[in-house]
Amino acid sequence: MGAIEIIIIFLAISIIISFGIGANDETMATLYGSKNLTMRELLILATIFAILGAVLLGNAVAETVGKDLLNEDLIIISNSIVLTILISTAIWLILSSALGLPISTTHATIGSIIGIGLLLGGDMGVNWLSILEMSIWWILSPVIGYIATYYTYKLIHKFIINKLSGFNNFAKTEKKFSYILLVVICWTAFSRAGNDCSNAVGIVVGVGIGIETNLLLLFAGLSLASGVVILGRGVIKNVGTITELHPSTAFASEIPTAIILFFGTVLGIPLSGSHMIVASVVGLAKSRRAPTKKGLWKIIAIWLLTFPAAALLSVLLFFPISLLGV
After folding, report:
1. Residue ranges of the domains in the chain?
2. Rounded to two decimals, what is the model's pTM?
3. Helix axes 233-240, 273-288, angle to 10 degrees
């Protein structure tokens, strides 16, 4: 197979993954849940910031995913390996999105890379130090999101909401929070696009196919935006209705995610926006002593399944793909 054909295949699958990422992106969920904007308005915002975030903020994480996770002393990153990782990630993303379940794109990609690394290089095939560094962030980020949201809501309620008198004052305060929330959500969407799109193109960047990283990220951003618009409604509604939200409470759940995602993306750390926002929304529910959606266990189950499922998929797909002579 010629170089042009390989480039086209890699681009096509990266676009499919980016589409799946967009379809599984619940960044706008708290805006939906707080009834701040219509679904159409949310999708327009998501489109704008998906493209901007991918192009302006995606380089650092793409380098991490593409070059730091496999032991290149033992494993040469071939076209077959790249194709396997891309396809297994795409399958798991699209399947989860079809079920309306928010998963971690990061975990799907990293799980696929781990599966290939173990298959071809054994225990030494994977750069476990890099995985360990990332896993610390994967554990800490939702925990921080949960705790920060819990206490942010408590502080807002104690020092602002409890001091209001009358419905008009409450309505005015919530209106102010709605504007602040809009800014925070846009910041989150910008950072998350940079982080998530890197998962779609990172392994392609690692193998080096002669296309500028920024151009790959532009394709990824456009595809992510398409996924949000065409299929993203289900996940946005599912997460946005985990618990009852108002602009002030939605702000409390969103601000930790916005801060952690931005700095993690700038530092080149692949993070799970899904884990952080869901943990934050649950922290909000606990802080308010409000009920959470009964289907929450399904979301947690799919998180736990993502690593082994993506790894197993990559192992199963590698042999038939390698036989194609890509």
Report:
1. 3-323
2. 0.78
3. 30
